[in-house]
Amino acid sequence: MTGTRRVLVVTAVPPERDAVVLSAGAAPEPLPLLDHLVLHRVRPPGRGGNGPGGLLVDTLAAGVGPAAAAAGTSAVLALAPGAYEVVISAGIAGGFAPAVAVGGTVVASAIVAADLGGQTAEGFTDVAQMGVGVVAHRPPPGLARALAEAAGAVLAPVLTVSTVTGTAPRAEELAGRHAGAAAEAMEGFGVATAAALFGVPALEVRTVSNAVGPRDRAAWRIPEALRALTDAFAAIWPVLDGRQVMDVREARDVPDVRDDDSGRNRGGRVP
Ligand SMILES: O=C(O)c1cccc(C(=O)CC[C@H]2O[C@@H](n3cnc4c(=O)[nH]cnc43)[C@H](O)[C@@H]2O)c1
Hints:
- Pfam families: PNP_UDP_1.
- Belongs to the PNP/UDP phosphorylase family. Futalosine hydrolase subfamily.
- By secondary structure, the chain is an alpha/beta fold.
- The chain contains eight helices and twelve strands.
- The protein has a single domain (5-252), classed as Nucleoside phosphorylase domain (Rossmann fold), CATH 3.40.50.
């Protein structure tokens, strides 16, 4: 295999980006794209060391929440059409017990918009049930499984929320509506929506800083989760570096969960 495989990693905040960069073991090259859009580029060691070929990883701290994540991801993908083979939403997260413990790692089997819909007296209806949108994106399943195995991670749905869960009833409601979900964070669905627009497969990798439940910010173990994020990406780079292009393109054959008919996950620009 020849050629460089380019990967875009999108985090919410700079400490998360720096934890990903640290996994590459070398200082990043800052690449300003717009006034408030700066990529940090690294070349993780892997196939062929740091020479030609291998991985070229651009990292972006796009801001907190799905809107900032989608805007930042879209801007980068629009400014570099066809450049990236895969986009990864990454960062810390809340974990659903007992699926994953604080300090653990989750690779998303599905990236799910958990609060995109309407609330009535009868309960929550998502936009897919309303017939007006999509509520989940499916990462390439074989690749997600391979990353999870390499990182010692749980492979499970990851929820995207716009409001951090802070009560036990809300945690139970989400877990009830999304059986098997292992984590909640605030950006994955935005990153995946932007990636789908450009026909690029999306993945999500999260390390758990806190349990989903009653709010206790003092109990968040952010340094531990950031260290776990560095370790997870150090384990993931060789997998991404060694796989055939076909493997990252397998997403094309997997429709969005309850997809609409726009076909946005197909026919992309990856060369
Ligand atoms: O204060 C710091 O040093 C610091 C370092 C790294 C990250 C942060 C954040 O505040 C990250 C916010 C980010 O984390 C995700 N997150 C974490 N736990 C949860 C949760 O229980 N529910 C939802 N999201 C969570 C989320 O993606 C935020 O964007 C601070």
